[in-house]
Amino acid sequence: MYFLLPFKFIDIDDKEILVNEVGDYLVVERGTAERIVNREIQNDGKLFYDLHANYFISQSRIPKLIDNLATRYRTKKSFLNDFTSLHIFVMTLRCNQNCEYCQASSVVCNESSYDISYEDLDHAINLMYQSPSPSLTMEFQGGEPTLVPEKLEYAIQKSEELNLLYNKRMTYVLCTNSIELNDKILSICKDYQVLISTSLDGPKEIHDVNRNKEGSYDRVVNGIQKAREALGFDRVSALMTTSFLSLDYSKEIVESYIRNGFTNIFIRALNPYGFARENDWDSYFERFIEFYKEVLDYIIEKNKQGVFFIEDFTALIIRKILTPFPIGFVDLQSPAGIINSVIVYNFDGYVYASDESRMLAENGDYTFRLGKISDSYEEIFYGNKAQNISLSWSTESLTGCADCAFQGYCGADPVRNYAIQNDMIGFRPTSHFCFKHKEIIKHIFSLLIHRKDEVLPIFKSWIA
Amino acid sequence: MFDFNLLSENKISFKVSNNLFSDRVITKVMYWLQSSYVIEWKKNEEFSEIKLVKKNGHFNDEERDSLYKRISQDLIDFKTRALIFEETKEIRNILLIKAFANNDDFEDYFLTKDSPT
């Protein structure tokens, strides 16, 4: 006789995956969950001991090690302890590129009305320091934030002054296309240990088409080189966005990252915000999954040949599957990353729930505008808007997610649900977010089932 | 599930015993079919009669067979999930309380006289 503990299950290939409340998994024969519930598991076999040791069943109504399980659950959700740690400052909407998939609805002009004001910067920095988190990341975005170097410097100096009082662990990140990384910008970055996060979509022929600018690739690569020389090799990271064009160039994109000295790549899908809203998304996401699998296979082969190279999204999922720790990635959190982990102070003087929320606002939709930057911390972070959004930000209570075996590995995204399906709760059967994450997690489990000896050491090396 | 029949080119009907499957289980199975089918659901004392009308195009043999297998399996799976949920509701609540409450306040939470050890 045994008692059940909470767990979920899903069929993958010819096996069944059981996942318990803290994300531990077991690969078993199909139909095992039903057998467990029907009390058909003999209490002297290997399966019984596996189920018992991994908290799927218990020999007492309340397991003796429930405190251990509770501690692990608390650890999984420990990102909630410190509340908002990532504070995004949209310094300007102006940009010097014209990317075809632009998600920020950037404008190419010189009007300062698209820049954040000094007054709003002051208010926003004050709000940031009211966050209970002992570690804060101040991330500068645009548009292109290097177009307002004087405001960038002012913001960091202001933050440093305040930090004498608050004593937080500060990280500064400059998100830039690296086109105009001049000496002034690099000097600011060096003085305040600012990390550079840039954009590189792959080889020249893809990158330049995506940017709608000939010569963009060369300028970005030069910028990366210049930043590495000035700040240190590891102070520069890059993100790629998978455009429709990219989908046919999996190997070439990985090779271009290796050629440019990177040891990782984040295979990031397009999203529906801003200018990229009109694409055929069903077809795109189906192709994206195939692209992701090709890239991952290629990277696994590279690792087998002795080239250490990480696919970042896979590493995030693997960390969720194999370790008890939260990963600090806002797209895979429940409760969602918006407000709980990230907040956006926009150039227009308003605070938004996330980066994507302000992108919706550029299209005239202010659903996720939480208040003015000059409002109080309580009004913004605990106001009616935030409370309303909180009703749909936990996978544990969302239809379709509540029963999902991947619940603990995935996250809630009310903003995307709203943007695509006009409903913060969303409808999982047609959700691209659900489709993409489910297919990727299934694929990773499929690799762990069929090629475990080959891929597990590689995956473990990525999260070590 | 029984009486699984093709009624017309784009309509399938089947019946589900009320004794075997609750409304909650049937609702969860139907939830995942809504993107492709319009669902009609009638219920009497013994069974639910469900009709699926395909939103686009007609049924072919392959789709009909795979739909039959999928619904049969989903009914079993969602029933299993419902049983796990019901049986573990209390232990899950205890787990969450212990995870998020101040440990000192809840040290003796489950040490009641009728709690098995």
What does this structure look like?
The complex is a heterodimer of chains A (464) and B (117). With 464 residues, chain A is α/β, with parallel strands linked by helices. Chain A has two domains: 74 residues, no CATH class; 275 residues, TIM Barrel (Alpha-Beta Barrel), CATH 3.20.20. Chain A has 17 helices and 16 strands. In chain A, the strands form four sheets. Chain A has a nine-stranded mixed β-sheet with strand order 12-10-9-8-7-6-14-15-16, sandwiched between helices. In chain A, a hairpin with a 4-residue loop joins strand 14 and strand 15. In chain A, helix 10 runs parallel beside helix 16. The longest helix of chain A has 24 residues. In chain A, 46% of the residues are buried. The mean pLDDT of chain A is 94. By secondary structure, chain B is α+β, with helices and mostly antiparallel strands. Chain B has one domain: Ribosomal protein S6/Translation elongation factor EF1B (Alpha-Beta Plaits), CATH 3.30.70. Chain B is built from two helices and four strands. Chain B is elongated, with a radius of gyration of 21 Å. The C terminus of chain B is likely disordered. At the A-B interface, strand 1, strand 2, helix 1 and helix 3 of A face helix 2 of B.
Sheet with the most strands, sense and barrel status of chain A: 9 strands, mixed
* Structure annotation, total helices of chain B: 2
Shape of chain A: globular
According to CATH, the homologous superfamily of chain B is Ribosomal protein S6/Translation elongation factor EF1B
Return residue spans of chain B where pLDDT drops below 50 for at least 5 consecutive residues: 109-117
Distance between the termini of chain A: 39 Å
Strand order of the largest sheet of chain B: 1-2-4-3
By CATH, the architecture of chain B is named 2-Layer Sandwich
How many structural domains in the coordinates of chain A? Answer: 2
What is the β-strand count of chain B? 4
Strand ordering within the main sheet of chain A: 12-10-9-8-7-6-14-15-16
Helix percentage range of chain A = 40-55%
